[in-house]
Specification:
CATH superfamily of the largest domain in chain B: Sodium/glucose cotransporter
Strand order of the largest sheet of chain B: 1-2
Oligomer: heterodimer
CATH architecture of the largest domain in chain B: Up-down Bundle
Number of helices of chain A: 3
Largest sheet of chain A: none
Shape of chain B: globular
Largest sheet of chain B: 2 strands, antiparallel
Number of helices of chain B: 24
Number of strands of chain A: 0
Radius of gyration of chain A: 22 Å
Distance between the termini of chain B: 40 Å
Mean pLDDT of chain A: 85
Number of strands of chain B: 2
Mean pLDDT of chain B: 84
Strand content of chain A: under 5%
Order of helices and strands of chain A: HHH
Helix content of chain B: 55-70%
Strand content of chain B: under 5%
Distance between the termini of chain A: 24 Å
Low-confidence stretches of chain A: none
CATH class of the largest domain in chain B: Mainly Alpha
Radius of gyration of chain B: 25 Å
Amino acid sequence: MNDKNIEPDYHSPEVQAALKRYWRDNLRLIAGLLFIWAFASLGCGVLFADWLNQFYLPFTGFPLGFWFAQQGSIMIFVLCILMYCIFMERLDRRHHKLLESLKADSDGVNKGKVS
Amino acid sequence: MDTKTWTFIFVGVTFTLYLAIAWITRVRDTRGFYVAGQGVPAMANGMATAADWMSASSFISMAGLISFMGYAGGVYLMGWTGGYVLLALLLAPYLRKFGQFTMPDFVGQRFESDLARVVAVICALFICFIYVAGQMRGVGIVFSRFLEVDINTGVIFGMAIVFVYATLGGMKSITWTQVAQYWVLITAYLIVAIAIAIKLTGIPVPSIAMGATLKPEFAGGQTVYLLERLNLIQQDLGFLSYTDTFVGSWDKVNVFFVTLALMAGTAGLPHVLVRFYTVKNVRAARWSGMWALLFISILYLTAPATAAFARYFMIESLNGATTESLPEWYDNWEQTGLIYWLDDGDGVVRYSNREDNEIFRTGSLGTAAMLDIQSDHQRWIDSTGNNGTDGRQVLRNMGLSGPDQDITVLATPEMAELSSWIIALLAAGGLAAALSTASGLLLVISSAVGHDIYYRIINPQSTEKQRLLVGRAVIGIAVVIAGLFGIYPFGYVAQVVAFAFGLAASSIFPVLIMGVFSKRVGTIPAVVGMLVGIGFTGSYIVACVSFGMAPWTFGIFEQGINPQGIGVVGMLLNFGICLALTPLFDEPSQKVRDMVDSIREPEGYGPAVRIEQAIDH
């Protein structure tokens, strides 16, 4: 577990660039998921609920707007966080590899060895 | 065995379990005391967060609230779960990477200001006290209804239990006790809901059963959807249709505002935020957010189903019943005053939303006042309206029409004629919900005073031992204060809880978001924004609730904004003012900018796991 935990040097421009990229990807993911979050709850569950209520969830007695407000949005919330965790794992791994290679490079330079 | 014996057994066994866990996991140092040594696995932390979050009101009152509100009950369902998406995506991973003890720690260090820290501490204390008072009351109510002791005796017993395990082991034993409490409360809640779902529809999953067709024997031999039938009965009796949107005072604007305010408020609640400091690393913080919501959603997806089932049973079993055919549960619960039948003389129960309604609750009326109304009413019947007064009118004018909301969860097992051990399990579940939330809140109170005020501001040279002593002493004092609130409750619990969410949404949530997502926002804009947010939200709620101010329409909405939803306006004001002031003031120091960089970075996370050192074997 410890080898997964690198203490980055924030003053190196490469590390700064890596962090910037990581942060940009993270923000993009957050924006996408929060859109789904708002669309399901505040959108389908509230703003369009009266219109959606004329339809029924197939094979059930749930009017659709009512279902989003009391069931659907909660299920979508769980999926939103699950998606975030899964995508961030991938992003974390990529970021970790990048930092590792940067560290290996700078260690190599410092010790005068070819990495 | 009868319900009372079963209740004694379940409550005895679960309480012994909680105390045993507290003893095994007791700690000696402050890190273990406040954040459990930062070594709680993500799934266990999620479970503990869920137990921490689901309070006596989630367990006992929420389904009842939904049962009477229909569609609009969704504001609580969406609001209290949607906040976790904000938490897991926007706050939890960064607060964990920051890796101190408390939420005010982050505010104080990010904005380099003791004033900001103190404002955050005051909000945290206020929110926790509001909450904890309700929990202690909940413990008292469960004790008094199931074990037939005095409410105050119940409160005192609850205080003693919480005190023992919160001071003994701090966050670590609270966390593991909460894991056990989660299982107790969710089992109790689900068993009841599943049994009723099977009884009504033959489908064992409450969320599916709610949208399914009723068994023919409940629908006059026809195949009809439960919700459709419910809408029909409701309309027949003059109630609003169950699934229709935006009826009565819950118009679109208010549903939107209240939902959003509860979401942002949830994400800013200090006792939930502190949970994410207790996990191993950034990754675990995200996953524990997922686990927490998953475990919470099990109850929150079931609650609306319980609400619909209970509504159906309540109307069907009461309406048209006669003195002889009144269900047994009615007799049991009439004694508590949660439900009360005032007949108009024909011997047939009518439960409706019209003048001829005969079902009431006694609310805060005493036995004497109730007897007066009853005898006046009897004279009114005997004299065919010439003498005495129509008690139904009196009670309706007092706002006591219909049964108490709490009866929904507490009495449904009896409505559905389930065995007595299931009813007893519900008592243990209600106590688990109340105790787990109370202990989490007490810990935040203790850390806010012992850590943020005593250590960070009053006595930074204090030793570990002194701080731990202060932390424990504060828990002791807080338990006593909370117990007093439980014995002498202040009125309007719902509005006061709205206050807690409003404060969290308008102060803590925006300041944390700007702390993480902006490197430019400095001390003064943040503090001003926070004060404006709290000031506006607080005065609006107080003016509406205590001084009868008409809710504002802001000139654009048809109905005024409900005090429960005003936190959204406060939050927007906070964000707006803070961002507008930011260009006029200095940017934060290099140290703070580096700190923001480091919390955004998933690598290099805080001190190693110290859970082994925290255990006192």
